[in-house]
Design a protein that fits this description.
The complex is a heterodimer of chains A (about 200) and B (about 130). With about 200 residues, chain A is mainly alpha-helical. Chain A has eight helices and one strand, in the order H-H-H-H-E-H-H-H-H. Chain B has about 130 residues and is mainly α. Classes of the chains: A mainly alpha (about 200), B mainly alpha (about 130).
């Protein structure tokens, strides 16, 4: 059960802010569920991004994932953490996490009982944890082809996917971070479209 | 490009930060994912409001129940003379109810006789020994 002080804090958040928080959470959940666009989910189960967002808000409101507003004043950040852990648990523990993938990734690693998930395999280059994907050189070639003439976008996107933060890429390319962000957005769309076609 | 292992949560966190303060960029990401941002916002607000309302009711109910059970405990531990005064007062409020002993009364009985504010007032009087 939520306590009255937390409820008071939650009620003080205006509608417009809630609308924005909800959208941020749905984008976050969708990105995680579809593995950054590399593994587009087909609807073989009933859960989608909004399911996890509503569940996260419910858990904060009923007190099971209490919001420590003194330590984390931005509830969006707390809720994002709840959404992340709910989806990770879903990937690990549910047979429903077995979805048809667009890429060449072996999802069966996560299928079945959550107990089958072996943490010791996380460092293996071929077995993914639910939070990781492995992109082979061959897949990179396909992605590069999908970008076509958008060479700069491909260069930025591949740098980002390989682990460079947007700000660092902006410094190397000597262009504003906003342009890097837009290139990442376009790249995410191209990759999602590529693997959606194959799912 | 060589084989690459990608941390999805790290990328997700970066997009979360890059869309922070840039609602237009957030909406573009959502459109690419097949969402209508305006509709999503409306639906989100409605869902959050409904969840807040539901939990507010549950909290109120729980606080109320705790108040009534606390009140019964206070009645039972009161001095005999105070108990008599409480019974007189309750009989005045609900002549149709027959109680000879406060101990026989439960929370539901008490709810039928006194609302929350009357009960708080009574508890206050007991505390101040004003009965």
């Amino acid at each position: 059960m939520i306590d009255s002080r937390t409820l008071e804090k939650i009620e003080a958040i205006d509608e417009r802010t809630w609308g924005l928080i909800y959208k941020k959470l749905v984008r976050y959940a969708n990105f995680k569920l579809n593995k950054a666009g590399f593994e587009i989910r087909t609807e073989i189960d009933s859960v989608d991004a909004e399911h996890f967002v509503v569940l996260a808000i419910e858990k904060v409101l009923d007190g099971t994932r209490a919001w420590d507003f003194d330590r984390f004043p931005d509830i969006a950040i707390h809720l994002t953490g709840v959404v992340r852990s709910l989806i990770s648990s879903h990937f690990k523990a549910s047979t429903r996490s077995l979805v048809k993938t667009g890429g060449e990734f072996d999802q069966t690693v996560f299928a079945g009982n959550g107990d089958d998930f072996d943490e010791s395999n996380v460092d293996s280059p071929v077995i993914e944890s639910p939070e990781e994907i492995f992109i082979t050189a061959e897949t990179w070639n396909r992605i590069e082809k999908a970008f076509g003439e958008k060479r700069d976008d491909y260069a930025i996107y591949s740098e980002w996917i390989s682990g460079s933060p947007p700000r660092e890429i902006a410094e190397v390319f000597e262009i504003p971070v906003s342009e890097i962000n837009n290139a990442i957005k376009r790249g995410t769309r191209i990759v999602s479209t590529l693997f959606k076609k194959e799912s | 490009m060589k084989n690459t292992k990608v941390d999805i949560d790290k990328l997700n966190r970066e997009i979360f930060l890059m869309t922070h303060g840039q609602p237009e960029l957030l909406d573009e990401f959502l459109r690419d994912d097949g969402y209508d941002p305006l509709q999503l916002e409306k639906d989100g607000i409605a869902k959050v409001k409904a969840l807040i309302f539901k939990n507010k009711l549950a909290l109120k109910k729980s606080q109320q129940e705790s108040l009534y059970s606390r009140a019964l405990a206070v009645f039972e531990s009161a001095k005999e003379s105070t108990k008599e005064s409480i019974l007189d007062l309750l009989r005045q409020r609900a002549p149709q109810l027959q109680f000879n002993h406060l101990e026989k009364m439960d929370e539901e009985d008490l709810k039928d006789i006194l609302d929350e504010s009357d009960l708080l007032d009574l508890m206050n009087r007991i505390e101040k020994e004003d009965l």
